Amino acid sequence: MRNVDVVRTALGNTMRSKTRTFLTVIAIVIGAFTLTLTSGLGAGINKYVDSMVAGFGQTNQIYVMPGMDPSQQMPTNGEPQEYDPEEAAATGEFGMQMLTEDDIATIEGIDGIADVEPIVFVTADYLETADGDQFVLQSLGFPSDAAGMEMEAGTTPDPQAMELTVPETWLSAFGTEDPNEVLGQTVTIGLKDMAQQEQTVEAEIVGVSQQAISGVGGSPMPSSALNEELNDVQTSGLDVEQPKNYVQAVATVENLEANETAIKQALSDEGLMGLTLEDQLGVLTGIIDTVTWVLNGFALIALLAASFGIVNTLLMSVQERTREIGLMKALGMGRGKVFGLFSTEAVMLGVMGSVIGVGLGVLVGVIGNAALVNGPLSGVAGLSLYAVDPVSILLIVALILAIAFLAGTMPAARAAKKDPIEALRYE
Q: Residue 348 and residue 134: Cα distance in Å, rounded?
């Protein structure tokens, strides 16, 4: 019997008992469907996390902040702490440790760091439109995050120009729903100086942003030049020179992969802390991968149960076709061909279950993703809950076929070992 004939015969034998085959295939479909859906969810959410990474900055950057000094923690024994004027000068308005000019110089001097962008913290009072309407400015974005914003219209601010973007939720403040209508408008930002006198700075709107799940793009985003100007105004008003402090610094690194460990150690030696994008989002991706593997575990349990269904189906088939097996062997079919015939029947069950299950998983995933992203979750920019990964789909199909083949080996071996004379006498 040729291999083609073996496959054709196996397919025909599989369809002999339609109800039994149907129930076995359904069990495989459930496992394949769950695996496809969960792996697609993991791929989709990780894809969205990758887009979030862009929202936090560039992959060749390290975010530098003051290190955690144990002496600054809340004392538990009630003992007084020694006062350090330099540390006190580097403390922000809300008691938060800040970077000083000396810290910035130290960072610039570390080998492997090509450029350092210090970020000042600005608190403004209001934003005034061209019509004279004033709206509360609860917060301003950090210019270092501008590169990763999702833009509804326009562009990100030019670092050297007095420009900013506004979130799409602010369009109502300008009396429009069309983001293009606010582009080019001049707005006024009001804030208080050190003498509590109201000061103003003008800027041009160059873009309208969407808010990502990371929060980036949800507040007006000033350019670096505008942010510096606002900080200069904020710290002016008194005849006393104010020390310049920074909430963080973004360091661009030459060959981050090779220099990351050495730069982090150099920063730690200076009492500073450096975090890459992977450090900031690694925990999140780890949680997503863990949840995906747990869900995949349930799918594998379903496939394990399906494998017992395959064993049962083929054992029954061997029992019912004992005389047929004896006849095939009497006509010259060897053990290998008999084993191959029943193994092929097992693989056929796997093929049917995997094709239907994977197809349903992809269909439900794509439709569900579109319904949620364009419906209840439409306000989350760039959101992706499901992604089709061809490699994962091929691996799932290969896994199911392997499980089906292994499940069919015992019944196939039993069929191959049958004595043709005894098989022909079987009633």
A: 70
Q: Are 160 and 149 in contact (CB under 8 A)?
A: no
- For residue range 192-237, what is the model confidence (pLDDT) as tens digits? 988 888 999 999 999 999 877 667 788 899 998 999 899 888 888 8
**Distance (Å, rounded) from C-alpha 327 to C-alpha 331?**
6
With a CB cutoff of 8 Å and minimum separation 6, the contacts of 122 are 140, 191, 222, 227, 230, 231, 234
CB-based contacts of 337: which residues, under 8 Å, 6+ apart? 1, 6, 328
Provide the b/e sequence for 332-352 (b: ≥16 CB within 10 Å).
Answer: ebeeebbbbbbbbbbbbbbbb
Joined together, the tokens standing for residue 32 give 């394949």
Task: Characterize the bridge pairing of strands 221-222 and 61-66.
Answer: unpaired
Cα distances (angstroms) measured from residue 421 to each of 290, 399, 413: 55, 38, 17
Whole-number Å distance between alpha carbons of 49 and 42: 10
What are 142-192's pLDDT values in tens digits?
Answer: 887 777 677 889 998 998 999 999 999 999 999 999 999 999 999 999 999
| Residue whose C-alpha is closest to residue 342's, from 363, 324, 356 | 324
Q: Among the residues of 57-125, which ranges form H helices?
A: 85-89, 101-108
pLDDT higher than 70, residue 75 = no
With CA atoms as reference, report the closest residue to 246 among 118, 64, 94: 118
pTM: 0.58
Beta bridge partners of 128: 134, 188
- Burial pattern 272-290, b for ≥16 Cβ within 10 A else e, equals bbbbbbeeebeeebeebee
Q: Which whole-number Å values give the CA distances from 167 to 75, 140, 207, 373, 402, in the listed order?
A: 42, 11, 8, 19, 51
Q: Strand 198-210 vs strand 163-167: parallel, antiparallel, or unpaired?
A: parallel
Spatial strand order of the sheet with 61-66 comes to 113-119, 248-253, 61-66, 272-275
State how far the Cα of 99 lies from the Cα of 120, in Å rounded to an integer. 9
Assigned token pair, 180? 């293009």
Residue count (the chain): 427
Is residue 40 within 8 A of residue 387, CB to CB? The reply is yes
